[in-house]
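quick one
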Amino acid sequence: MENAEFRRHRRLRRTAGIRSSVRETHLRTEDFIYPLFVVEGKNVKNEVASMPGVYHRSLDLLNGEVDEAVERGIQSIILFGLPDEKDDVGSCAYDTNGIVQRATRQIKASHPELTVIADTCLCQFTDHGHCGVVEDGNILNDESLALLAKTAVSQAEAGADIIAPSNMMDGFVSAIRAGLDQAGYEDIPIMSYAVKYASAFYGPFRDAANSSPKSGDRKTYQMDPANRREAFREAQSDVDEGADFLIVKPALSYLDIIRDIRDRHDLPIVAYNVSGEYAMVKAAAQNGWIDEKEVVLEKLTSMKRAGADMILTYFAKDAAAWLNESN
Ligand code: PBG
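structure w/ PBG:
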């Protein structure tokens, strides 16, 4: 007889089979977007000090890594380029022979079925390290848009399947959409970094991408971590401007925002599990303080549970291997 005093929730946890049947959230290797850092030169494979397991690779050493990711079931990668030369307008970002453009052509030639996403920003390519044009210490909004559109078009020309603008200038989605359409790339989607906070969790990435601002910070264009309603406005304007995906970044301290955006919009949502979130897990795991595999899979699951469809994560290749083990 049912005891009316309390519910026996543990019945559904009694065996591994029952637990797996009632599991509500599932990670798949297809959910992951795997970031790769590409550099000029030959025979370069340098580990990023603050991101163990993440490397700068020259193009001659890139294919092996891509092959491995694809073998594990990864369907999408995102490219971050480190140019040899920087100037005040980030010319290498929109150079037909820029590092990202060449990497894209090379990867699409060997893996036409792989989704290659191009991060569209200027900060890795500008000598001042800001994501737009700078004048008297101000980051100029409208003047930066033309350069971003140019960058996106050159990435699409090189074969990028998705354009992912991360610069946080106002109007970047409509400027890039117009640029792509005019150049005949109306079929190339925009994965907008719609909700991007001015976060301290980007520290290791800036070491990796050599993209710290030389002066000032990014607080006039990235969002205040204290704000929630502002995220709704940012996401809404990107939807209105024609974004095809919405990124929320970072992920872990912003799971509430992922849920909010999921509840308000029907576009696919991408959680960006950023460099600092990666570095903390790596550091703790290297000290033997946590179980890396269990912690990573739990974290990634929490992002999907919060409402993300896809996860951009430096753990993608490892996580794919772990998922394959358990299948
Ligand atoms: C900027 C950009 C950033 C990251 C990727 N592209 C942030 C920034 O430097 O402001 C951070 C990613 C990470 O921390 O993993 N264009």
